[in-house]
């Protein structure tokens, strides 16, 4: 059991553990690894290397890696992880990010020489690679930790899901997935289970189950959350209620954004920060559904109608493809040629460009975040104390939306459809919900309280501060390098 209340000694200046970080594909996985790298190298007494796989799946990942290494300088070193040949045709029509997970998983044996050459004191691997990276690290005598890039609730679900499948099979239900009662946490209804997991032959399901079974072999699990945000799930994991013999859990979030130096051309090509500066306090609805999944054209147009009808100012980041390199359509074509952009000009800013989301959420003019509930987005909202209107679309996002509702960070309209379900959320529904949440002062106050708790957790002496310190101490004790 790992107690976040413990107060381990901070690393000494003499012994410097070398922590190697191995992220997988997708911004949702890469961003927290970059933040962890900077946290460990900046004042925590660690040498840090990040294993990079090129080419990346998306342009956003390539830009982020380049900016990370440029900003960190010599504090965060780069390791090139060259993958073994992989025939993607074995999985026709598969999601490109799941394919990259598989390519990295099959290349796991190549990790051994990489760790040896780096002189690693510890490996922190992505959850998508856990079951294949852990045995390689163990063979090399290198402690191996997992950075779980989603919520603690999703970690509990991941750890328990293999047992749920085993129980289903033993009862003669052939592994059919129903409601999942996660011990010590709460029930995850069938409708909130990630879509792919209903198909036992799906590539992601096979990866997910293998990684869930492998978690018990890790030396510890780092989670980008904090005790006050998810008390039930964190307590259940630490006490062994979810899975017996579960490793220590280090709640180290919200991991703070990396501050990248200004680059040329200017970082604000759409002018969104300048536009936000001109808006009244807490008047803007920020809308973004993340970097991972596209929304159908019909739903995009209903969302546009709802934002317009809400009467509120809004900043909307539009995404219409799974991989950003495929994004070629013009905004007018995506949103319908009915004059929408002209009608909302002045009180809205709509862009397809990449934005620095944490800067937007920290801006005083933002009063609501309409979010798909990707975990990075929710931790950024929590850190900024900005209310969330949860509209999960894919994967773990309904489980994360439940965290929004339970923590009082915002509201979740559970009836709204997500990817693969029939029916559209109408513009009228969107408008009414936005108006209701923006008018509710209690929602804003409760979100602000979450923000205060997040700040307390990461401040010196807070629960997340000490969790990270305990992790560093274990890495140092495992074999720090002397300069």
Automatic annotation (TrEMBL):
Domain of life of the source: Eukaryota
Molecular function, one GO term: UDP-glucosyltransferase activity
Enzyme class, broadest EC rank: transferase
Segments crossing the lipid bilayer: 110-133, 145-163
Pfam family name, one: UDPGT
Keyword line: Glycosyltransferase, Membrane, Transferase, Transmembrane, Transmembrane helix
Keyword Repeat: no
EC number: 2.4.1.-
Family label: Belongs to the UDP-glycosyltransferase family.
Protein name: Glycosyltransferase
């Amino acid at each position: 059991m790992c107690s976040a209340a413990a107060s381990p000694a901070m690393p000494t200046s003499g012994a410097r553990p070398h922590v190697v970080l191995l992220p997988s594909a997708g911004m949702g996985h890469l961003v927290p690894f970059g933040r962890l790298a900077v946290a460990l190298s900046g004042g925590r007494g660690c040498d840090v290397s990040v294993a990079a796989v090129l080419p990346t799946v998306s342009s956003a990942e390539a830009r982020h890696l380049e900016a990370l290494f440029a900003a960190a300088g010599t504090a965060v070193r780069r390791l090139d992880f060259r993958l073994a040949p992989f025939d993607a045709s074995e999985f026709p029509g598969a999601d490109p990010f799941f394919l990259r997970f598989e390519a990295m998983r099959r290349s796991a044996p190549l990790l051994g020489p990489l760790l040896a050459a780096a002189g690693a004191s510890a490996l922190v691997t992505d959850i998508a690679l856990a079951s294949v990276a852990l045995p390689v690290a163990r063979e090399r005598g290198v402690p191996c930790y997992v950075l779980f890039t989603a919520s603690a609730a999703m970690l509990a679900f991941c750890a328990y899901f293999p047992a749920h499948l085993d129980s289903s099979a033993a009862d003669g239900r052939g592994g059919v997935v129903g409601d999942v009662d996660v011990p010590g946490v709460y029930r995850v209804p069938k409708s909130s289970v990630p879509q792919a997991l209903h198909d036992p032959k799906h590539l992601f399901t096979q990866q997910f189950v293998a990684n869930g079974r492998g978690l018990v072999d890790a030396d510890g699990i780092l989670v980008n959350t904090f005790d006050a945000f998810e008390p039930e799930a964190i307590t259940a994991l630490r006490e062994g209620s979810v899975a017996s013999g579960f490793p220590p859990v280090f709640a180290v979030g919200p991991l703070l954004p990396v501050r990248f130096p200004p680059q040329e051309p200017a970082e604000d090509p759409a002018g969104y920060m300048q536009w936000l500066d001109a808006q009244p306090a807490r008047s803007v609805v920020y809308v973004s559904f993340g970097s991972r999944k596209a929304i159908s054209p019909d739903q995009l147009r209903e969302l546009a109608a709802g934002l317009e009808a809400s009467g509120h100012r809004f900043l909307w980041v539009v995404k219409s493809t799974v991989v950003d390199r495929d994004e070629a359509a013009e905004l007018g074509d995506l949103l319908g040629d009915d004059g929408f952009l002209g009608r909302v000009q002045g009180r809205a800013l709509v862009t397809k460009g990449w934005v620095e989301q944490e800067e937007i959420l920290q801006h005083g003019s933002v009063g609501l975040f309409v979010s798909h509930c990707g975990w990075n987005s929710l931790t950024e909202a929590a850190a900024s104390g900005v209310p969330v209107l949860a509209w999960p679309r894919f994967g773990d996002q309904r489980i994360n939306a439940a965290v929004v509702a339970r923590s009082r960070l915002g509201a979740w309209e559970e009836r709204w459809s997500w990817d693969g379900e029939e029916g559209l959320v109408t513009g009228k529904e969107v408008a009414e919900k936005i108006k209701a949440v923006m008018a509710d002062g209690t929602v804003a106050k409760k979100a602000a309280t979450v923000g205060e708790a997040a700040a307390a957790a990461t401040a010196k002496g807070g629960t997340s501060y000490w969790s990270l310190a305990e992790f560093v101490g274990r890495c140092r004790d495992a074999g720090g390098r002397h300069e």
